[in-house]
Structure formats: structure tokens, C-alpha cells
Amino acid sequence: MFSYLEKAVLAMALLRIFSGSIELFAAFLMLRFNTIEKAIIVNSSLALIGPIIFIATTTIGLYGIVGDISIAKVLWIILGVSFIIIGVRS
């Protein structure tokens, strides 16, 4: 099954599975600690991981299609991703 998948798509999917596993682990930690203060700490640590995974998957995707699209379109995609990151941080 995996031999028919593109390597970039497989890497992106595995990164998202890893990210989801981290999210589930964080949820279990919140339940285990059972205090609001510790749950906020765990949740705030996820705020660091989410954008890193987003940037990594986007970078892998761009690397996978960079030969198929023009440089202008790549720049538009990078600009769009930058706006998303700026919008989330503001």
C-alpha cells in the first residue's frame, strides 16, 4: 500500500499522525494531573508544537511540488503561510 504513495505525502501524513499522538498524550496528561494550572501549562506547550508541525508539513509539501509549479506560485504560497503564522501570533 505504501509503495504507491508519494514520499512527500507519506512524510506529511506521518508528521500529522505524530502531531495527533502528541495532542492525545497531552489530553491524557491533563486528565492525570487533574488541576487547571497544570492543564494550562500542558496546553501552552502545545501552542509551541502546533506551528512547528504546520511549518514542517508545509515545507515538505512545497519541497514535493517545487518542480511542478512556477517560482511565483511558490512565493504566493510562502506569503500565504506567513500571513497565517502572523495572524495566529497576533
Question: What is the mean pLDDT?
Answer: 89
- What is Rg? 17 Å
Molecular shape: flat
Counting DSSP E segments of at least 2 residues, the number of strands comes to 0
Summarize the structure in words.
- It is a single chain.
- This protein has 90 residues and is mainly alpha-helical.
- It has one domain.
- The chain has three helices and no strands.
- The longest helix has 30 residues.
- The radius of gyration is 17 Å and the shape is flat.
- It starts with 6 loop residues before the first helix and ends with a helix.
What are the key terms here?
90 residues; mainly alpha; 3 helices; flat
Quick structural overview:
The chain has 90 residues and is mainly alpha-helical. The protein contains three helices and no strands. It has one domain.
List the helices and strands and how they pair.
Elements (H helix, E strand, L loop, with lengths): L6 H27 L2 H30 L5 H19 L1
Helix pairs in contact: 1-2, 2-3
